């Protein structure tokens, strides 16, 4: 029977930052190699899921890369408003990961 846990509960690190004024990056790292492998193998975190979560088109996700040696995932996406422009409420890009905290991970 599959058990569901939240991403925030299984990830060692879940952070975001500005990669440049036009791109924000989300990093997810895991301590547990089995959890990381299961997420990667079943593509539980993918461009379609991220695009739905952030209400963006999949083409706005510039990269979604699994790094086996770090047991991590890097997601880079276009910023809705370039950093520092009027209307930008998060110039350092430190808030986007919050939308993934409750993301369900079937284990």
Q: Describe it for me?
A:
With 107 residues, the protein is of the alpha+beta class. The chain has a domain at 21-85. Helix content is 20%, strand content 33%. The protein has helices spanning 7-10, 33-41, 47-54, and strands spanning 4-6, 13-20, 23-29, 61-67, 72-78, 104-106. The strands form 2 sheets. The chain has a 4-stranded antiparallel β-sheet with strand order 2-3-5-4, covered by helices on one side. A hairpin with a 2-residue loop joins strand 2 and strand 3 (23-29). The longest helix has 9 residues, at 33-41. The chain is elongated, with a radius of gyration of 14 Å.
Residues in helix, %: 10-25%
Structural class of the secondary elements?
alpha+beta
The SSE string, one letter per element, is EHEEHHEEE
First and last CA, distance: 9 Å
**Gyration radius, rounded:** 14 Å
Number of helices: 3
The total strand number stands at 6
Mean pLDDT: 92
Rough outline? elongated
Q: Enumerate the spans where pLDDT stays under 50 for 5 or more consecutive residues.
A: none
Q: Report on the biggest sheet.
A: 4 strands, antiparallel
Beta-strand content: 25-35%
| Strand line-up across the major sheet | 2-3-5-4
